[in-house]
Write a structure and sequence with these properties.
Length: 344
């Protein structure tokens, strides 16, 4: 399936007005916070003791929106291992200590859930996975959950790398491509990961849309390309793409903010779980709300980092997640969204 830009228009933004009215009414806010969506998520991702990455990023937004979360940590590290550069200041942590969960340990944990008949989930969310056998075991877990409940939704962030390079073992790619992707209901690759999964170098919007079509053919119903389509962005703005299998694709344009921060993709995926559920699968409005929260979170983090730039401290590049809880609940910025229609 291929996509071609046939026409575009800005989505109606009237749905943002009720959110603003809600923020001015304390009684309504309390009522909103008391909502219980009756959803339970199994989140299999990395974990850090200090700072934000993996489950440390995903669990809080989900719980904030009323989701129950059972977390399995693929790794448990003292801090993230990312090599982030902010301005000209290197902020890589000098040391990373911790443990990695094995496929046998994951199997044991899941067996405990099964024996107690508590392996009941509305959603599965997966992120960083460090080795092939662990990723294969995740596939077994997802298959079992879907066999028990076909309505279980599998959200997969196929974490492999970014900006043209791998930061996980390259051997993970064929496992994602051949085993994990066909199981996924929602996939959130960046442009590099999209290219690796499809064999297409993603440089332009048309490259991106062609690759999205290939993944739809593998059975993925919803795909969100979070970042990295270099030919479709500028020094002032970035773009994200979301597509559903019936041929409708959306382009989202938003400002490029200063700084790069570990964990943004993990927050993105968790908020996508929330809003796709709350909006009954309306991908356009869901991604708009996710991106709006992400813009507010990154802006707050960037402003803090700039204020601390002289301290030469790694902590200045950690996400200001807790400080942004209001923005995680009630995004208050609109994001431009254009429809791209398949001419075929």
């Amino acid at each position: 399936m291929s996509f071609w830009p046939f026409f575009s228009f800005s989505l109606v933004k009237s749905q943002w007005n009720p959110i603003k009215r809600l923020m001015s009414n304390s009684a309504s806010i309390i009522k909103e916070l008391e909502k219980t969506p009756n959803r339970r998520v199994l989140s299999i991702q990395s974990h850090v003791v200090h700072g934000y990455a993996g489950n440390k990023c995903s669990v809080f937004p989900l719980q904030l929106h009323g989701f129950e979360v059972d977390a399995i940590n693929s790794v448990q590290f003292s801090n993230h291992a990312g090599n982030i550069e902010y301005l000209t200041l290197p902020t890589r942590y000098q040391h990373v200590k911790g443990q990695r969960l094995t496929d046998k340990e994951l199997d044991e944990l899941y067996e405990g859930l099964k024996l107690n008949n508590i392996n009941k989930y509305s959603h599965v969310l997966t992120g960083y996975c460090g080795n092939v056998t662990f990723l294969q075991k995740i596939a077994d877990v997802v298959k079992d959950l879907k066999n028990n409940n076909p309505n279980t939704r599998f959200f997969c962030d196929p974490v492999m790398g970014d900006n043209g390079r791998y930061y996980t073992p390259q051997e993970l790619m064929p496992i994602y491509r051949d085993i994990i992707v066909p199981l996924a209901d929602v996939l959130t690759p960046n442009a590099f990961e999209l290219g690796e999964l499809t064999g297409i170098k993603i440089e332009t919007e048309q490259d991106c849309l062609k690759a999205i079509g290939i993944l739809h053919q593998k059975g993925v119903s919803t795909i969100v390309v979070t970042s990295g389509v270099t030919g479709a962005q500028t020094s002032e703005f970035l773009r994200c793409y979301a597509s559903i299998r019936d041929g409708i694709c959306y382009r989202f344009t938003f400002p490029r903010l200063q700084g790069q921060f570990v964990g943004t993709g993990d927050v993105f995926a968790s908020l996508l779980v929330v809003w796709l559920d709350a909006l009954n699968g309306n991908i356009a409005d869901a991604v708009r709300r996710v991106l709006s929260s992400m813009q507010l979170l990154i802006r707050r983090t960037s402003e803090f980092a700039q204020s601390e730039v002289d301290s030469n401290s790694q902590r200045m590049c950690e996400l200001r997640l807790i400080q942004s809880r209001k923005e995680l609940l009630w995004p208050d910025e609109s994001i431009e969204a254009n429809i791209i229609v398949d001419e075929m």
